[in-house]
Amino acid sequence: MRVSFIGLGAIGYPMAGHLPKRHQTVVWNRTASRAQQHAKEHGSQMAKTLEETADAEIIFTCLPTSAEVAEIVDKLKPKLRRGALWVDCTSGDPTASREIASQLQTLGVAFLDAPVSGGVPGAINGQLTVMVGGDENALEQVRPALECFAAKIVRVGDVGAGHTVKAISNTLMAVNVWASSEGLVTLAQQGVDLSLALDAINASSGRSNATERLLPSPLLKREFPPRFKLALLAKDVKIATSLTRASGISSPVFALISELLNASKATLGTEADYLEIVKAIERWSGINDA
Ligand code: NDP
User: Fold this and answer.
1) How far apart are alpha carbons 280 and 191 in whole angstroms?
2) Which atom number of ligand 1 is nearest to the Cα of residue 89?
3) How far is CA 151 from CA 13, 72, 163, in A?
4) pLDDT confidence of 288, banded at 50, 70, 90?
5) What global pTM score does this model have?
6) Rounded to whole angstroms, how far apart are CA atoms 208 and 19?
7) Pocket (CB within 6 angstroms of ligand 1)
8) Domains 2-158 and 164-284 share a fold
9) Ligand 1 centroid to 116 CA: how many Å?
10) Residue-range domain boundaries for the chain
11) Mean pLDDT over each residue of the chain, to the nearest integer
């Protein structure tokens, strides 16, 4: 198959790196040097113009938000092949995705929202989980391409359902990371050895993905490599809080985590990694985070 991949960011770059092994792959990135590097490293083909990406059976997007996806869709609409499939791996907004899908449908192009989970390491290892919203037949057609970077693919419903599940899933993760960080920063202040504390917690009822996988390295080694921007997590939680509000669900915890992420973004800056919320908690508590 001929596939295009648009958006070679922290996660898009390694995801797209698996495609050339099985499919003819054209890549495009706003900052062209990243696409150039990708072609060199992974054997993809760099598109000289964005329009070139329209000449494909499958077009992937992996951009910050649905707003950037809508912009790209608008630019490519006149050039798309009838029968093509658009797979949006952005963690996007379900309402925006339904609008994009209906515009593409008039051109004979099927749209699937297919956000991913598993982070940069999962993308590098080809072990991502993909939660897909959209037509079952369309999913079967794109499955061989998704399988290049995914270990698990779940169709969760019609268009928009993938983005809905992703927003809720990341909000659950944010709540866990935040609460675990408060707990572990407290333990450190109490003079408890954090590696021993984590050893005990991870064999106890307080354990979670946050305590087992995400927080040990930031807390024990003070390592915060840039992998997933705090601003992107705040965006996911904002999508989830709009969904709870629109559904009339009482959700004070979702509202609070949204406020906390926005406040930590103001403290840490827009480029901060999401695990740096540990530093925000420390700073707000008067602890030197050197
Ligand atoms: P990054 O910020 O690392 O990359 C964003 C990408 O979008 C870059 O390729 C950037 O291009 C491009 N871009 C930004 N604005 C525009 C625009 N106006 N027009 C065209 N291209 C644009 O983000 P990630 O790769 O981390 O995330 C991408 C999506 O995947 C997000 O929705 C995120 O929530 C989701 N996600 C991320 C995960 C992660 O671990 N990083 C995990 C799971 C989901 P340029 O290089 O020019 O800046």
Assistant:
1) 20
2) 30
3) 18, 28, 19
4) confident
5) 0.97
6) 32
7) 7-12, 29-31, 34, 62-64, 68, 90-91, 116-117, 119-120, 227-229, 232
8) no
9) 12
10) 2-158, 164-284
11) 97
